[in-house]
Specification:
It is a single chain. The chain is α/β, with parallel strands linked by helices and about 240 residues long. The protein contains nine helices and nine strands. The chain has a single domain, classed as Rossmann fold (3-Layer(aba) Sandwich), CATH 3.40.50.150. Helix content is about 35%, strand content about 25%.
Length: about 240
């Protein structure tokens, strides 16, 4: 029987996520560590959109010793796993979880209070589930809710510029998975049946150029792409 999951949960069994995503996504930890390095260590008020199992949250809490994180995710399963992980650390009191759809926040439909005047906003493997129209609305909403000089960084799959690049990436990803002791077929057998939730759906990938143009149009003064590995990238900027 196929398990129905929300976009972004990926695996039918949430407990498999941390291991499975590292087998599926090349340089997953390097990608998250690079994103965290882009966040000022003196940030005190951080918004995380799509907190998942708390892997990025944990890295941020270690990097920013004075930070309080507002973590948003629409998956109760992900939030439960994240809380369970953070309960084993000294960081739980520095993070607040909100079960909500960040697409609703971007669209002005939010019923729960997230807050404003964030020093930084971060996201990983989540925003690509929005349409381009919603990505732009979210970029605008993020910009309005950052302090002057605040930053936003997103680590996400992107649409590559050519089919040749995509073919190379798929081969490299397959070899990466083999090197991690698994196979693409084995990973796929554990993936759940993703159904739309809120404003999110199946992968809706966009090029780096489009992402940076959206951010500039949304009012970000400086935009950048500090890391990329074929179909994966970190991008964002400062307001």
């Amino acid at each position: 029987m196929t398990t129905t999951i929300y976009p972004g949960e990926v695996f039918a069994d949430t407990q498999l996520f941390d291991t499975g995503i590292r087998q599926l996504i090349p340089h997953y930890d390097l990608m998250l560590d690079t994103l965290v390095a882009c966040v000022p260590s003196n940030a005190r008020h951080v918004l995380e959109l799509g907190c998942g199992t708390g892997e990025l949250s944990l890295k941020l809490l270690k990097h920013c010793p004075d930070a309080q994180i507002m973590a948003v995710d629409y998956s109760p399963r992900m939030i439960k796993m994240s809380k369970s992980k953070l309960e084993k650390t000294q960081f739980l009191e520095r993070i607040t979880f909100i079960e909500a759809d960040f697409g609703a926040w971007a669209n002005g439909e939010m019923k729960k209070e997230i807050g404003t005047n964030f020093d930084a906003c971060v996201s990983s493997l989540a925003i690509h589930h929005l349409t381009d129209e919603m990505k732009y609305k979210l970029s605008t909403c993020i910009g309005k809710n950052l302090v002057e000089g605040g930053c936003f960084w997103n680590a996400d799959p992107i649409l590559q510029e050519s089919s040749q690049l995509q073919e190379i990436y798929l081969k490299l990803r397959e070899q990466w998975t083999i090197n991690q002791g698994s196979t693409i077929d084995n990973i796929r057998s554990k993936i759940g049946n993703s159904q739309p939730q809120g404003h999110s759906g199946q992968d809706r990938l966009t090029t780096i150029e489009t992402h940076l143009t959206m951010l500039s149009s949304a009012g970000f003064k400086t935009v950048a792409n500090p890391w990329r590995f074929f179909g994966l990238a970190i991008f964002g900027g400062w307001v």
